[in-house]
């Protein structure tokens, strides 16, 4: 529907020039012009501008409070040089878990890409907070005796009227993007810490196999000499040689896993070239006393970043639903102002050419009438989207409670398993092997039982290393089950057969 305020008209003075009296359309524009100017001035005064740091202030404060590490966006050569100097300083010493996390936060380019995405979200927020741009047009129609020039300006009234609501929604979306960036920081920190423990555990496993292989090689050489002198029969000698060969294979497999775990850590840290030759400890640290947790479910619901994101999304959708309901009957409304200049000439009966010109002003309001759809589909879609977010928020609350309990139970169980290995399994395996060696030296048993006990002790030591690895990973999972960033799985299945299975070998 088009409604015209101040219809197009022409008034001419006898001299052929336009009348000096303002037309009704001109009077309407003269009355609207001050109001439009003041309205645009108020809108421009309330527009959101770009922040100096691309929205990183909230990311830095949110991340540092959770993990206690520095988060830096690299945006120029100076910040890149400062980050590189700090990374180099951390890599000069054997990496600790905290140092590895800090290197990843400074050097991982995937995280820097997440910071760039936050800058894109800020640009979108600023664009959404600006008034709609008017459209200007000019046209000229000329013939042999007539010329018509038309100038027009069109503005979207609906976009202008809904600007405050749309700007508020855009600010909510930017807040969500900022929390998602914090979540990316926490996820990188958690993944790096888990991978660090896997890489160090692989180092410890290789170190243990190297010690076992050195002992087995010395024993094999002794058996070879005894076999040459007839002190050991051929079957016992073959059993010892087979045991040494098996250890060679297990050491090779351990070194393969060591290389794989290290390269995965290198990717988390974002290193290459000479920087990838950093040093890692050769053994896992001792397990500390287990933490006691009180009200872990409430703490997880309060601190988890993904829960905060879900709440913010629900609030944003509530505002969006309110705006959709408010404009459900209006899909589009545009205000158009047009000025037309006509100049013509015609030849009179007596021969002279008569010239005449006219100017006219038109103000039009165009509104789309919802004949077939009164906004029910838009409102229904907005309502269902809101309810979907509400149900997902409720589901997330249930899952977060369960994840917090599961992570804490796994953490405590992993600690108990490590203590069991350290206090009982490993000491008993050592006693068994020592006694078996004494009995073999006293010719009370054969080499078969000695080798079986040696195999079982090796498997128990490897299992103890993996148990400590799983403890530190469970410790990381429990920590991030409370603050967010993703809860990973345990360290993986135990390498090789269990001691019980090997006993029946």
Automatic annotation (TrEMBL):
Disordered: annotated span? 1-24
- Gene Ontology MF annotations: efflux transmembrane transporter activity
Identify the SUPFAM superfamilies for this entry.
Outer membrane efflux proteins (OEP)
- PANTHER family assigned to the protein according to its UniProt record, in alphabetical order: BLR4935 PROTEIN (PTHR30203:SF24), OUTER MEMBRANE CATION EFFLUX PROTEIN (PTHR30203)
What the entry lists under InterPro entries is as follows: MdtP/NodT-like (IPR010131)
- Which species is this record about? Camelimonas lactis
- Name of the protein in question: Outer membrane protein TolC
């Amino acid at each position: 529907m088009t409604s015209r305020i101040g219809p197009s008209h022409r008034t001419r003075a006898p001299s052929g020039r336009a009348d000096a009296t303002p037309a009704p359309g001109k009077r309407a524009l003269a009355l609207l012009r001050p109001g439009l100017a003041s309205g645009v001035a108020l809108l421009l005064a309330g527009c959101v501008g770009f922040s100096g740091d691309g929205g990183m202030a909230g990311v830095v404060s949110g991340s540092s409070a959770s993990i206690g590490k520095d988060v830096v966006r690299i945006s120029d050569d100076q910040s890149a040089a400062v980050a590189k100097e700090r990374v180099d300083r951390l890599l000069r010493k054997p990496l600790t878990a905290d140092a590895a996390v800090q290197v990843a936060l400074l050097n991982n380019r995937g995280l820097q890409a997440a910071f760039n995405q936050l800058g894109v979200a800020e640009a979108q927020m600023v664009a959404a907070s600006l008034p709609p741009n008017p459209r200007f047009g000019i046209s000229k129609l000329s013939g042999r005796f007539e010329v018509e020039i038309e100038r027009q300006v069109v503005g979207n009234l609906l976009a202008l009227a809904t600007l405050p609501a749309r700007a508020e929604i855009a600010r909510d979306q930017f807040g969500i993007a900022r929390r998602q960036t914090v979540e990316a920081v926490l996820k990188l920190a958690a993944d790096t810490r888990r991978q660090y423990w896997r890489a160090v555990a692989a180092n410890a496993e290789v170190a243990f196999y190297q010690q076992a292989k050195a002992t087995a090689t010395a024993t094999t050489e002794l058996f070879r000499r005894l076999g040459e002198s007839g002190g050991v029969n051929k079957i016992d000698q073959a059993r010892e040689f087979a045991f040494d060969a098996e250890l060679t294979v297990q050491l090779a497999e351990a070194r393969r896993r060591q290389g794989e775990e290290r390269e995965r850590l290198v990717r988390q840290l974002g290193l290459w070239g000479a920087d990838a030759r950093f040093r890692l400890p050769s053994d896992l640290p001792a397990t500390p006393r287990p933490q006691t947790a009180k009200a872990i479910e409430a703490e997880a619901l309060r601190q988890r970043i993904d829960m905060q994101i879900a709440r913010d999304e629900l609030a944003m959708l509530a505002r969006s639903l309110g705006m959709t309901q408010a404009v459900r009957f209006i899909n589009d409304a545009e205000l158009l102002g047009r000025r037309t200049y006509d100049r013509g000439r015609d030849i009179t009966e007596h021969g002279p050419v008569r010239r005449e010109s006219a100017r006219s002003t038109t103000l039009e309001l165009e509104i789309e009438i919802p004949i077939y759809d009164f906004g029910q589909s838009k409102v229904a879609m907005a309502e269902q989207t809101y309810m979907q977010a509400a149900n997902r928020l409720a589901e997330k609350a249930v899952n977060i409670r369960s994840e917090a309990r599961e992570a804490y139970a796994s953490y405590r169980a992993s600690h108990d398993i490590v203590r069991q290995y350290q206090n009982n399994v490993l000491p008993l395996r050592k006693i068994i092997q020592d006694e078996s060696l004494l009995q073999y030296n006293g010719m009370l048993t054969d080499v078969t039982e000695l080798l079986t006990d040696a195999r079982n002790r090796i498997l128990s030591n490897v299992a103890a290393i993996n148990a400590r690895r799983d403890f530190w990973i469970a410790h990381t999972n429990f920590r991030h089950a409370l603050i967010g960033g993703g809860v990973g799985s345990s360290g993986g299945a135990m390498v090789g057969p269990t001691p019980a299975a090997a006993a029946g070998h």
